[in-house]
């Protein structure tokens, strides 16, 4: 396992990290004993960075993770959780106000059974962009509240997350220097989309650590395929299906290639994946510690690009 400092935080985190969203039964119904074993397997395999959110499973993921961490020494892991995005009784809610995010941090610590959060993230800032105050509220209210908790020693570092890279850039540019210490972005360092590469210079110039997530691009880069809610256009779905078939013919699962590619950039501190299946966790660790077949990477990228162009031309 490779360990890289996350920006200037001092946290040297594993190049593959554990996303605990699955523990909230986000993707399938899970049981606690399997979830506990998945976390233990991650730690035993050298993973030392765990990410979660009160939103995942509407507080379930944090609760289950807290139980799983009871028998794991605190020095074995860095823990990241989030504020701003929540849910109850199946209804999603958002609140980026200073009071709510402050209360949320203490609530998360109680569920997780800890007295210190290594990294606190503002979750999916794109949703605040659509609320009164827009992204300026993240700059003027949300982040300052978290900085106050950092001064009190409640949290160690402050970050932001979003799918849209331009939102991350905007908040960093409009915040006081040093406020945002890391970003978490998903689906943008994958076999089908490496848009984050164009932003690496910007993040590094601001001393910001980079966490990548979803190496399988939310199911696009898998043999099983995408869930019904996946937002990808039909052309991309078909292109990735063709790529998966090609990898099968090469006896090289596309999931393996996807994980290996996502962790391959040394400028990205870590890549998050999520699974409540201990065997999947073990397998991903093994894959991440191997060099990808770069010829196959190039071939798969070409297949995806060509197939999209053919589909669009015929539509």
UniProtKB/TrEMBL annotation:
It comes from Prevotella communis. This is Predicted oxidoreductase. GO terms for molecular function: L-galactose dehydrogenase activity. GO terms for cellular component: cytosol. Residues 16-303 form the NADP-dependent oxidoreductase domain. Pfam families: Aldo_ket_red (PF00248). Coiled coil: none annotated. It comes from the Bacteria.
């Amino acid at each position: 396992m490779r360990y890289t400092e996350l920006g200037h935080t001092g946290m040297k985190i594993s190049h593959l990290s554990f996303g605990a969203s699955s523990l909230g039964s986000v993707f399938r119904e899970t049981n606690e004993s399997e979830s506990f074993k998945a976390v233990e397997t991650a730690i035993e395999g050298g993973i030392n960075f765990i990410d979660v959110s009160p939103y995942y499973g509407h507080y379930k993921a944090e609760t289950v993770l807290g139980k799983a961490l009871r028998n794991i020494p605190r020095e074995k892991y860095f823990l990241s959780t989030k504020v701003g995005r929540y849910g109850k009784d199946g209804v999603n809610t958002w609140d980026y106000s200073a009071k709510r995010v402050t209360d949320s941090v203490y609530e998360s610590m109680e569920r997780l059974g800890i007295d210190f959060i290594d990294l606190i993230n503002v979750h999916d800032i794109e949703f605040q962009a659509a609320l009164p105050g827009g992204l300026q509220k993240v700059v003027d209210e949300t982040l300052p509240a978290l900085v106050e908790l950092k001064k009190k020693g409640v949290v160690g570092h402050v970050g932001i997350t979003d799918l849209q890279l331009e939102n991350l850039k905007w908040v960093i540019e409009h915040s006081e220097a040093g406020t945002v210490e890391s970003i978490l972005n998903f689906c943008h360092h994958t076999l089908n989309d490496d848009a984050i590469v164009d932003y690496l210079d910007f993040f590094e110039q601001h001393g910001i650590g980079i966490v990548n997530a979803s190496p399988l691009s939310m199911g696009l880069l898998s043999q099983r395929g995408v869930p019904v809610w996946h937002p990808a256009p039909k052309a991309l779905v078909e292109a990735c299906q063709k790529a998966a078939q090609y990898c099968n013919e090469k006896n090289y699962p596309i999931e393996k290639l996807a994980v290996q590619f996502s962790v391959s950039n040394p400028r990205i501190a870590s890549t998050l994946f999520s699974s409540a299946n201990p065997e999947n966790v073990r397998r991903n660790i093994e894959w991440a510690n191997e060099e990808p077949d770069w010829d196959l990477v190039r071939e798969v990228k070409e297949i995806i690009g060509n197939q999209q162009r053919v589909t669009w031309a015929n539509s």
